[in-house]
Amino acid sequence: MVDLSFGDTLFGFWNWVDAIIRILIIVIAMTVMVIYLTYGERKVVARFQQRLGPTRTGPAGLLQGIADAVKLVGKEDIRPHNADRWVFEFAPFATFIPVLMTLVILPFAKDWGVRNMTLGLFYVFAILGLNIVGIMMAGLGSGNKFALLGGIRAAAQMISYEIPLVLSLLSVAMITGTLNLNIIAEQQDRYPYIILQPLAFLIFFTAMLSELHRAPFDIPVAESEIVGGYFVEYSGIRWSMFQLSEYAAMWAFTVFGSIVFFGGWQFPKGGDWGWGWQLALTMGKSLTFIIAIMWVRTTVPRLRIDQLMSFCWKILLPLSLVQIIANAFIIVYGGEYWLLSLTSGIGAIALVAIIINRAFRRSTKTTGLVGAYRSLQVPAP
């Protein structure tokens, strides 16, 4: 069995050979994961919409993702005549590489990963900001006004939502006293940090949806307005690289979130029951995250650009700052941990109340009180 521990090298190889082997393992795992995430999303969304989803290609449609990958690789790769050649062609790589660089520091089990970094949390902060470079390259290099508009929307959205995202993670770092993801997971052997920081988790989850351009924050790729966004001019394998980056980023975000807020491979009993149980914990929590993301996509309508930006700057950012200030007071003055749960829980309730109030008020304006009440009810099966 191949040892994926955080040791110096695999099988005693040279460092550069060791690095290549580890990266290849991550790339293969990521590719397989993405293929079946696309299949899984089709099946989950179909279930919500009372459809069947893929059923024809392979048993229960399990080969549909592989068939799509083969089709995309074989399609013609077209570059618009007025596109900037090098910017246009390198944009998919500039979008994909930051996602791969994020995956290399994630511990999938105790001492299982590519590299263990002392500043792992800080490293993720730094890498997340690079993804916007590839998106802007795609928007500017395509020579298409719709792609340009999608790139500008994505830039504004990602820059805005990265601030509450980072602040929500810093609130956890204040409690742990470390930026090492492996140590953060180990410290959650008794309870996950979502119990101490529910508001930080809600902010993280919301900002994560925005960073991934998932509904209701998918305004940069709104097909009804800008035909597909910043990669509208891409086809074939280059288009598939954008899709690969999106689903790989979703997987990376969910693994990262499960480590920070749900104990990752440690909780519950991860330190006692071995690496098999640890891998099952990490993947189970990640897949639960992913299903929640798909659930939101099918049930929440797309926000307008003004609503999207207002929600970040007027709601998420102030609440994340309040969370950090409250943590600072409690930690500096030696408060009990239950105070962290209390203050963060009140903030989480306030955030949910604000969202419900805004949704109810918007429904009232358009359909009246009766329509707003009906919009909150679950339709009969």
Main β-sheet, in a few words? none
**β-strand number:** 0
Beta content: under 5%
Mean pLDDT: 86
Number of domains: 1
Structural class: mainly alpha
What letter string, H or E per element, gives the SSE order?
HHHHHHHHHHHHH
Oligomeric state of shown chains: single chain
Q: Give the N-terminus to C-terminus distance in angstroms.
A: 49 Å
Which word captures the global form?
globular
Low-confidence stretches: 1-7, 368-381
Number of helices: 13
Radius of gyration: 22 Å
Indicate the percent of residues in helices.
55-70%
Structure in words:
- This protein is mainly α and 381 residues long.
- It has one domain.
- The chain has 13 helices and no strands.
- It has helices spanning 15-48, 64-74, 85-103, 120-128, 131-141, 145-176, 181-186, 198-211, 223-226, 236-262, 274-299, 305-332, 337-376.
- Helix 3 runs antiparallel to helix 5, helix 5 (131-141) packs antiparallel against helix 6 and helix 6 (145-176) runs parallel beside helix 12 (305-332).
- It is globular.
